Fold this sequence. Notes:
By secondary structure, this protein is α/β, with parallel strands linked by helices. It is 37% helix and 24% strand. The chain has a six-stranded mixed β-sheet. The N and C termini lie far apart (53 Å).
Amino acid sequence: xxxxxxxxxxxxxxxxPLHAEELFVSAAASxxxxxxxxxxxxxxxxxxxxxxxxxxxxxxxRQIEEGxxxxxxxxxxxxxxxxxxxxIVPATRCDLLTxxxxxxxxxxxxxxxxxxxxxxxxxxxxxxxxxxxxxPAGVYAKEVLTNANLWDRIEPKIAPTENVRATLxxxxxGNADAGFVYKTDAMISAKVRIALQIPAEFAPKIVYPAAIxxxxxxxxxxxxxxxxLKTEEAGQIFRRLGFGLTQ
Length: 247
């Protein structure tokens, strides 16, 4: 007991926390690999433990609307951040990253896709995309196909998934002939290849905004994490994994 009291007094007297503080970060599934690596570096430097909640940005936004714990929201599109305009601290909102959408196929697949219209060919029977009703990667994919006047022809082939990482998993399992994912997702997989780049005239502008959630009880710590995401150290990781930086 005496040893415990001494330890407590010492810890309090030196302002050293007995346990690292926790910061809850809700982030788009496509950020999983980058943020896990960046988060580990931030934890070592700050003594703040990052608890990540990865998923479709639309699902994460809904969770925050319903009061789920979150200190920082990092979205794969601006629409979901706009949706939370009354739930975030507006002054902290910042556009951090860019990405591009690509069409993928299995690495050893014989699928030859030289243009978007090839997706309408009979031999392409199933196309995996994230849910086009709200998940950013799916919304972007539908936008591309609509702009190319292909959506109505291709919609019967669409196999919607929960998020972009689920789309990648479907493709890796060989359960679809083609899929729409971000370039960053294609880069981390040894089982798929980029079969088609989206032509510039159809390519959507993909921006990743981040902001502190207004209900956060850890505003200072959240601000430190946002600041860390803008450092050169974090930027090197983002770039290595295929993201573009906005600043």
